[in-house]
Design goal:
single chain, alpha/beta, Rossmann fold, Hypothetical protein af1432, 2 domains, 18 helices
Amino acid sequence: MPEKIVFFGGTFDPPHTEHVNIAAAAAKRYRPDRLIVMPTAIPPHKSSIFAAKGADRLKMCKIAFSGIENVEVSDFEIKNGGKSYSYITLKKLRQDNPDADIVFAMGTDMLRTFSEWKNPNEILENCRIALIQRSGDESAEKTLFDFERQFGKKADVIDYVGQDVSSTECKISLMLALSPDNIPDGVLSYIRENSLYEPDEYFGFVVKNLPEKRRIHTKGVILEAINLAKNLKVDISKAVTAACLHDAAKYLDYRNYKDFSMPDGVPESVVHQYLGGYIAEKALGVTDGDIIEAITYHTTAKAGMCLLAKIIYVADMIERGRNFQGVETLRAKVYENFDEGFKACLEFTVEHLTREGKPIFYETLNAIKSYSIRE
């Protein structure tokens, strides 16, 4: 029988428990002679924030996957450097193993965008594809159908439904001093021993000044902002900074900042957005006007907002920790059509304040007029 090889690639920044579970499921399904785990050097299809060095990701992978039989952690792509293209890696793997049965294990997101990869047909000349689904992934069936229709080949489906875990969330949790669920104990020890994913100045300020409950909300806003920024082609690092700092002044007293000023008649619940913008610029050295605007108006909105400011306003309202009546409808509208979803969020705010008998701040009223929403 030919040698059986399962290939499992990714950024692994850091490797989390779901990565390990996926590899274990692939090992159980195929009983491979070799299960090759390969961290990328630079992923060509996605941005990586607060990235660990390749050497550290290699070491973390060796720790994380050590319990799986016949596993190998390869440094091929990291040693090659630059952007890591699967067609090059699989071609090399085929050249070294001409008679092997090579299976490329991947998630639904990867398979869905497979046609956008560099030389996808060349990849398929050197391996077959196996899909690992995630829980709640209703798009897997369509993705499999589209793949077969486009490439004329069926993908295997590994009998395992994984959980929705991301390395990005793991990193954000660490940087916000929150419990880093879903990181293997050995990997977490390595991260702490080597001071990986430590808070930068912005995250450090938030950790110092926000209680855990508010940091959990902040994490939700960051993750939502990242998703929206990706969809709308907005700089992800700017979205992360604005989301991180949006509530940084929530529990600070503006009277302690002698040079701070704000418009007259600002409700108490709104003061923190103005103070947050001030602190971002004056205390933390943020110079990007879009980031400052996004922080300064994330509660009230305003007329003529930049796209980043709209993203933070929406992310603050619909992040996964929000559970008010109507939030699911808002989420659906936002991801169906962002501009209309933004307007729906703004209108929802006005309706809520009206029902509560609370005054509506003039910046919010100006926003309503600016975006042609009924008052």
